[in-house]
Amino acid sequence: MFRRVLIANRGEIALRIIRSLRELGVESVVIHGREDRLSLPVRLADEGYFIPRDDPLATYLDIEAIVSAAKEVGADAVHPGYGFLSENPTFAKRLSEEGITFIGPSEECLRLLGDKIAARKSMSEAGIPIARGTEKPVSDYQEALGVATEIGFPIMIKAASGGGGIGMQVVQDETEFESALRLCQGRAESAFGDGRVFIEEYVSPAEHVEFQVIADG
Q1: CA dist., res. 95 & res. 104, Å (int)
Q2: Which of 84, 104, 106, 192 is least surrounded by Cβ atoms within 10 Å, i.e. has the fewest?
Q3: Which of 177, 179, 183 is CA-nearest to residue 202?
Q4: C-alpha to C-alpha distance for 4 and 91, rounded to whole angstroms
């Protein structure tokens, strides 16, 4: 059992983690920026750790600052919640190098599945059907438009990292494409610190089927 856990998230997510840790008798430390200094999670946690940044979200994306905070407060583990650095393999690796537990998948799993482009490649190599799309990130507008045209509108632009539908948008035709591409890149960079996006065919109608895999290690 951990003695002290640093929470690298904010808002409702951080609040849920704090409550769970309290039920387990584990101390909680929550990082925060200037805008969150009076937030409920900061007030309810056993300790708050201030990481000042001009961009309110940058506090939760600065890997080295968070690793340093975990070491300074004597945290046994870091809980990333979801979003931000929760699917970042570099973050998991840095914590491991410092002897701090990352509460989440291993670095290897994150590299394989936390990156949707790599995940698509792995699924394809395993013989699992996937929607048509790019095998690498797209950034140049003309190149990306050529790919989208080849696949056929409507298409989806998706962030390579993160989740929760952030950095994802349906594009109905060419007139919407450039603005949607820039918007998704910006949102992905802001939310996950990774502005890479890729293009995938838009499947409709479709049924969402999801299953969770839980494992120790």
Answers
A1: 12
A2: 106
A3: 177
A4: 19
Cis peptide before 154 (omega within 30 of 0): yes
- Residue-range definition of the domain harbouring residue 147: 115-201
Q: How confident is the model at residue 217 (pLDDT cuts 50, 70, 90)?
A: low
Cα 169 from Cα 202, distance rounded (Å): 10
Look up the pTM and report it. 0.76
Q: Rounded to whole angstroms, how far apart are CA atoms 83 and 86?
A: 6
Domain-located, residue 10: yes
Q: Is residue 215 domain-resident?
A: no
Query: What distance in Å separates the CA atoms of residue 87 and residue 70, rounded to the nearest whole number?
Result: 18
In degrees, rounded to 5, the angle at the alpha carbon of residue 64 between the alpha carbons of residues 58 and 70 is 100
In the structure encoding, which two tokens stand for residue 76, read together?
């046994």
Could you give the C-alpha distances from 133 to 35, 125, 175, in angstroms and in order? 39, 15, 20
- 101 and 120: one domain? no
